[in-house]
Amino acid sequence: MTTPILIAATPTAFDADGAVDLESTRAIYAHTLEGGTHAIFVNGTTAEFAALSVAERRANLAAAVDVAGADRVIAHVGAASPHETAVLARDAVELGITRLSVLTPFYMPATLVGVRRQIAAAKTAAPQAEIYLYLFPDRTGVHVSPEQAAALIDEFDLAGAKISIAGTDYLGAVAAALSTPRTLLSGNDGLLREILAVGGHGVVSGVSSSLPEPFARLVDAIADGSDDVDSAADRVNEIVPVLGPSIAGLKLSLQLQGVITDSRCRMAIDEPASDLRERIEATIAAAAPVESSLR
């Protein structure tokens, strides 16, 4: 079987004053890649991109390229406006990045006309890049049907889509509606086998930025047809409900492992309660590193 794609959606680290801590952010990039992920998804939702300036997003990308190499970085260039999306896309390609992801417009209501403008802005700014449509209706308020998503991918000759919609039904419907095969990635960390079963190709996983080894083990097991698939999937599904729901919890996990120095979020995200902290500590203790052929 073809190896499923494992991409880590990486957070942005901040210091005690709330400024971007590039040294700690670089450490996150190195940590997840060393743990077995294929690439890093930079400046996405997990990175609190809506609270980052254009200059800060470029600095994160430059650090990612330095740590991972441009071919292992996917730059999220979505913004509230097509204008800013174009600026971000140009920044990414100037750094040598060839894979971009474009979120639909957000905050202001947008129809398919607005979504097309957003994609066109990125395509014009980065005509040679592989571009992925990024769908996250719970955050953007923009709803695109599976058939419309497939039509957009075909119309703009996109590389595929990153779909942050619960379950697998939507992704499966997009796969069925495409005229030609494209790469479809899901934000559902714990559903890798199910995603593959409906025509998807992998995950963009926030949790794997903190505890990458269990995800890499599952990817290896699926690719090898190993008898360890069930146990590997069970381990991932023990981790995701603990770290997955909260960026603050994810960052606390990174701090407890010594990857970053401060777990603060810039956005107004609640800090983990004491019981969640205890669960995170127990999850880290149980997640012994394993060897992965992805390294």
Brief overview:
This protein is of the alpha/beta class and 295 residues long. The chain has a single domain (5-286), classed as TIM Barrel (Alpha-Beta Barrel). The protein has helices at 22-34, 54-68, 82-94, 112-125, 137-140, 146-155, 169-177, 192-197, 212-224, 229-243, 247-256, 274-286, and strands at 5-9, 39-42, 73-76, 99-103, 130-135, 160-163, 183-186, 202-205.
What attributes does this structure have?
single chain, 295 residues, alpha/beta, TIM Barrel, eight-stranded parallel barrel, 46% helix
Write up this protein.
It is a single chain. With 295 residues, the chain is of the alpha/beta class. The protein has a single domain, classed as TIM Barrel, CATH 3.20.20. Helix content is 46%, strand content 12%. The chain has twelve helices and eight strands. The chain has an eight-stranded parallel barrel, surrounded by seven helices. Strand 6 (160-163), helix 7 and strand 7 form a beta-alpha-beta unit. Helix 2 runs parallel beside helix 3 (82-94), helix 3 packs parallel to helix 4 and helix 11 (247-256) crosses helix 12 (274-286). The longest helix is centred in the first third of the chain and has 15 residues, at 54-68. Mean pLDDT is 95; it is low at 290-295.
